[in-house]
């Protein structure tokens, strides 16, 4: 078979061009790979709302689109991660500043004692006293986990740790109960906190609801091991324990159901009743609910369904606040403990409510009026303090340090 010269030249040219084309294709693949690696290693900008929405829309067509609330939660989660390191640095700076302030105060006390010719150890050593157990139950009801998000459960866990610390260091100690023990909070105590609650003294952990804790407390009163009835708990015929309405009138006879359990009082801001003094052989329930007031009247409804008494703390009668204020669980416990010591609600509130909240006693009429004016002006501004993550909470549980972080997540408890 004869082949023409022209065909031979064409075949030779094509054969020579094939290696060149292979080389060019390999070079282009290498460049494309390098470009892809560069794009992957490049720091990507944070997700914005438009990008989140677009990426959600580019997903599987079968998946339903994200709602506004879901997009809002994604943005909050993104912002939380972006500023996580910054918050950690701020907490560290606050901790160091507090340590430095304590060091300066300690040196000042030592200098003053030496100048007065007193042994500095007698000044630095905290006053020693033997704690007195009293027949008052403080029950933290943890049966609201389904209404809380994970960060709020973390916040409630730290508040329970501080509640234990406050009660353990108090001069007059109540019987602390934690009811509805379980779920994510129990898992957190057993993992993150290393099971520290198992070494707590004087704490009764009940897996059942708060009424079971109340029954256990009543058995303690009946066994004569409840403690000593101190002066502040002794009956006062002139001052009823709980009053009704804004005028603080005695509870009318027959206004309460006949089958109501009078040995348990559920603290809730929605109650028409007000606590005037604590009663011996009585348990006070504090709703362990951290929800930034999303669930309105939840504790009051639950107390009515369970047929127990309800009441609120008389904070509005004693304090003039410059802003709306919601107490945390551990602050309510501390207020109750302070009242056992002094028997005065005003002193108890002033000793617990942070000064940055601007609360003053209503004994000074002019200052109270000014505070009321400021409260009306700021009525639309809610308290936005939130516990971003407490890195010291394990140390508090181990050492009983009641001084927590400056920012607390709010919880729905007994504030009018």
UniProtKB/TrEMBL annotation:
It catalyses: guanosine(9) in tRNA + S-adenosyl-L-methionine = N(1)-methylguanosine(9) in tRNA + S-adenosyl-L-homocysteine + H(+). Residues 77-86 have a biased composition (Basic and acidic residues). Its EC number is 2.1.1.221. Residues 124-360 form the SAM-dependent MTase TRM10-type domain. Residues 1-15 have a biased composition (Polar residues). Residues 1-106, 363-416 are annotated as: Disordered. CDD domains: SPOUT_Trm10-like. This is tRNA (guanine(9)-N1)-methyltransferase. It is an enzyme of class 2 (transferase). GO terms for cellular component: nucleus. Residues 366-388 have a biased composition (Acidic residues). Keywords: Methyltransferase, S-adenosyl-L-methionine, Transferase. Residues 87-101 have a biased composition (Basic residues). It comes from the Eukaryota. One of its GO terms (molecular function) is tRNA binding. One of its GO terms (biological process) is tRNA N1-guanine methylation. PANTHER family: TRNA (GUANINE-9-) METHYLTRANSFERASE, TRNA METHYLTRANSFERASE 10 HOMOLOG A.
């Amino acid at each position: 078979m004869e082949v023409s010269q022209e065909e031979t030249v064409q075949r030779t040219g094509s054969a020579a061009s094939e290696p060149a084309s292979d080389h060019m294709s390999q070079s282009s693949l290498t460049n494309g790979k390098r470009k892809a690696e560069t794009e992957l290693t490049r720091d990507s900008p944070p997700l914005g709302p438009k990008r989140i929405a677009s990426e959600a829309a580019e997903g599987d067509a079968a998946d339903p689109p994200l709602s506004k609330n879901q997009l809002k939660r994604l943005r909050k989660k993104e912002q939380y991660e972006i500023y996580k390191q910054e918050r950690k640095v701020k907490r560290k700076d606050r901790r160091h500043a507090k340590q430095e302030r304590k060091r300066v105060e300690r040196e000042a006390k030592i200098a003053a004692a030496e100048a007065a010719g007193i042994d500095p150890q007698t000044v630095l050593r905290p006053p020693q006293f033997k704690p007195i157990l009293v027949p008052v139950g403080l029950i933290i009801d943890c049966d609201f986990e389904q209404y809380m998000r994970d960060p709020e459960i973390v916040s409630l866990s730290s508040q329970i740790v501080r509640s234990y610390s406050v009660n353990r260091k108090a001069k007059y100690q109540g019987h602390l109960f934690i009811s509805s023990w379980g779920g994510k909070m129990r898992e957190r105590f057993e993992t993150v906190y290393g099971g520290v609650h198992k070494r707590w003294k004087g704490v009764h952990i009940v897996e059942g609801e708060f009424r079971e804790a109340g029954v256990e407390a009543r058995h303690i009163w009946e066994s004569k091991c409840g403690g000593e009835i101190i002066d502040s708990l002794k009956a006062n015929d002139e001052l009823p324990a709980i009053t009704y309405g804004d005028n603080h009138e005695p509870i009318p006879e027959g206004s309460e159901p006949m089958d109501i359990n009078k040995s348990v009082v559920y603290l809730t801001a929605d109650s028409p009743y007000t606590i005037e003094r604590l009663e011996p052989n009585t348990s006070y329930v504090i709703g362990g609910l951290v929800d930034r007031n999303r669930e309105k009247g939840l504790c009051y409804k639950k107390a009515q369904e369970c047929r127990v008494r309800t009441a609120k703390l008389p904070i509005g009668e004693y304090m003039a606040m410059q802003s709306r204020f919601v107490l945390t669980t551990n602050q309510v416990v501390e207020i109750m403990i302070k009242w056992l010591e002094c028997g005065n609600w005003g002193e108890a509130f002033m000793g617990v409510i942070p000064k940055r909240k601007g609360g003053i006693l209503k004994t000074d009429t002019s200052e109270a009026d000014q505070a009321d004016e400021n409260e009306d002006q700021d009525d639309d501004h809610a308290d936005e303090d939130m516990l971003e993550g407490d890195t010291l909470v394990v140390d508090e549980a181990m050492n009983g340090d009641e001084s927590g972080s400056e920012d607390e997540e709010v919880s729905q408890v007994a504030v009018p």
